[in-house]
Amino acid sequence: MLLQSHNGVIRLLPALPDSWPEGRVTGVRARGGVEVSIDWLGGKLTRAILNTQFGGHCRIRYGPKEVEIKVRPGSRYVLDDSLRTESK
User: Fold this and answer.
1) Which residues are registered as beta bridge partners of 69?
2) 50 with 35: CB under 8 angstroms?
3) Residue 38 contacts residue 27 (beta carbons within 8 Å)
4) Domains in the chain with CATH codes
5) 47: closest CA among 20, 66, 24?
6) How many CA atoms lie within 13 A of 69 on its CB side?
7) Among 42, 55, 45, 41, residue whose Cα is nearest residue 79
8) Closest alpha carbon to 54 in 34, 76, 78, 30
9) Per residue in 29-87, pLDDT tens?
């Protein structure tokens, strides 16, 4: 419901129930050593934070939007609702 990690893609809020219009989840582990935290409001993504354990490429999808991020080991990435990133 909140995160799917399959075939090299991390999908954010793929099946969010209507009964959860707002919320937050922290520390969800995706494949590839990526820890994900997600905030949503009005049933829409407001922010996602990725903490990466390993380097490489990470594909993130939210609805029809998809981005590929080159990640560094031990880095933190903040994504907005348009999947724009800012390395932290």
Assistant:
1) 58
2) yes
3) no
4) 3-83 (2.60.40.1180)
5) 24
6) 26
7) 45
8) 34
9) 999 899 999 999 999 999 999 999 999 999 999 999 999 999 999 999 999 999 998 65
Site of tokens 């999947």: 83
Residue predicted with more confidence, 88 or 82: 82
DSSP, residue by residue, the chain: --EEEETTEEEESTT--TT--SEEEEEEEETTTEEEEEEEETTEEEEEEEEESS-EEEEEEETTEEEEEEE-TT-EEEE-TT--EEE-
What single-letter amino acid sits at 62? Answer: Y
